[in-house]
Design brief:
- Helices cover 21% and strands 28% of the residues.
- It has 308 residues and is of the alpha+beta class.
- The chain has 2 domains: 149 residues, Nucleoside Triphosphate Pyrophosphohydrolase (Alpha-Beta Complex), CATH 3.90.79; 139 residues, Nucleoside Triphosphate Pyrophosphohydrolase.
- Strands 11, 12, 13, 14, 15 and 16 form a 6-stranded mixed sheet that branches. The chain has a 4-stranded mixed sheet with strand order 4-1-6-5, with helices on one face.
- Strand 8 and strand 9 form a beta hairpin.
- The chain is globular and about 65 Å long.
Amino acid sequence: MPLDFTLDSDPVLSVAAPDRAAPLRQDAESLARGWASARVIRVDRRNRFAIEPAPEDKQRVHLEPALDLADSLPDDAVFLGQTEEHRHIWAVPVDELPDDPAVTSLRECGAELVDGDGSLATQAVALLGWHRDNVRGRDRAHHPRSVDAGWAIEDPFHGGLEYPRTDPAMICLVHDGGRRVLLAHQPIWPAGMYSHVAGFVEAGESLEGCVRREVAEEVGVVVDRVRYLGSQPWPFPRSLMVGFHAIGDPDAPIVLEDEEISEAAWFDVDEVRDALAGRGDLVVASPVSIAHVMLRSWVSAVDRDGRG
């Protein structure tokens, strides 16, 4: 039987954040009152924020007292939820944070954050990025008005609400049903780095259909037995990565017809195991990515099945 498997853990950015407290988004009075005890994460235009040490060699998002930032709730703040003590949590945009070891980004520190803080930071980066995109190139008089605590915008002339958009994209681990996996290299990546085929879902297309189309377009391989694995928000700028695995034929020719891919090859599980441990010539995605979790879960499944 071809190998089947599931993720051995949730991707770090998918672990649930503190209570989003969505009903509060439309309660302007409660939010204004709550500012006095609220906590704030500042995010700059490079999507950086501050972190601080946490137990077990982890890091946590640095949440500042709101009153250290402003005496009252700023118009450009976005509401992220509330702590267990019911303190409100807000994200506030700033132009630039200082270059400091404690200032970092999701790509750099996401895998080291305590459970839930990756999702919290992802919300902040995604929402503030969406607001930046909606004012870029517009005269200030044409800027939309933020409503629902930053979870919607209203056109100043025509009315009507718009909400943050998420672009679904599939990412697929293609394997041979045994101990080999197909990985691809993009020319913009460092030498030796390979990962899964990925791509955006087109209009009127299912996720499974996107898997089959993207793999065929990028590496020329026909896949079947497409199975869902899990998902992860990826706010660069607004993607939802939906993970799958599928079976491909390693004897089929690899045909690179997409300029995004410069190389593709089948790798043995031993090579992937070494790469996950930081050994060998193969370089794989960092632990903050669902791509890493997918590879690690596949290797574990091969080993459990006695194929490793």
